[in-house]
Specification:
Helix content: 40-55%
Structural class: alpha/beta
Oligomer: single chain
Number of strands: 11
Strand content: 15-25%
CATH class of the largest domain: Alpha Beta
Bound molecules: calcium ion
Radius of gyration: 18 Å
Order of helices and strands: EHEHEHEHEHEEEEHHHEE
Distance between the termini: 29 Å
CATH topology of the largest domain: Rossmann fold
CATH superfamily of the largest domain: Response regulator
Largest sheet: 5 strands, parallel
Length: 220
């Protein structure tokens, strides 16, 4: 899951990025509203964590413009402005949730999970498919109730598949969701991770749809 963080406070931004990375997200961090808007309109993000007081374009304007252009990326706003009027303005501008600074990183992560759950096509807290269960809160995967060990990227890829249970996922979409800017990628990494997932979860767990991409295997 790839997340965009737009925050101009260096210390806070660094802490949030580190925490979200540790939780397994691919995180891009930008420090002004103009760059944030450009990134949101050109890259596919699962969600955005958005500060309101930002240089070049403030968070409320960014959000209004984004929604006006039909972009529905889930947005959680961070704000030090704790007046009721500011909260209402943020929500009316199109935010899905908000947190008031200072906040607990664990709460930010729980709210992000809730946001992603609502945005996903399943809406369920735990994701299930053919004996495999994935619990995003615990970051745990089981196959027929036995714990399965997955690397960070394998986990992220499985999460992506389970969040789109009936969709064919093109290779480049899978890749874009897996890597933040500046992360090293080899040309065949998606194939390698899918190979690993098939070894761990069963050869038919992920199907290749020739010329189009991959999808979860379905019983025929
Ligand atoms: Ca700020």
């Amino acid at each position: 899951m790839r997340i965009l963080l737009v925050e101009d406070d260096a210390l806070l931004g660094d802490g949030i990025r580190a925490g979200l990375k540790l939780a397994g997200y691919a995180v891009d961090w930008l420090r002004d509203g103009e760059q944030g808007y450009l990134a949101l309109t050109t890259e596919p993000y699962a969600a955005c964590v958005l500060d309101l007081g930002l240089p070049r374009r403030n968070g409320i304007h960014l959000l209004r413009d984004l929604r006006a252009h039909g972009n529905h990326t889930p947005v959680l706003i961070l704000t030090a402005r704790d007046t009721v009027a500011d909260k209402i303005a943020g929500l009316d501008a199109g935010a899905d949730d908000y947190l008031i600074k200072p906040f607990d990183l664990n709460e930010l992560q729980a709210r992000l999970r809730a946001l992603l759950r609502r945005a996903s096509h399943t809406g369920a807290a735990c994701l299930h498919h053919r004996g495999v269960s994935l619990d995003p809160a615990a970051r745990q995967v089981t196959l027929h109730d036995h714990a399965i060990n997955l690397s960070g990227k394998e986990y992220a890829l499985l999460h992506d598949f389970l969040s789109h249970p009936n969709a064919i996922r093109p290779r480049d979409e899978l890749e874009q969701g897996l890597y933040a800017w500046g992360e090293e990628t080899a040309s065949n990494t998606i194939e390698v991770y899918i190979h690993h997932l098939r070894k761990k979860l069963g050869a038919s767990f992920i199907e290749t749809v020739r010329g189009l991409g991959y999808r979860l295997g379905h019983d025929t």
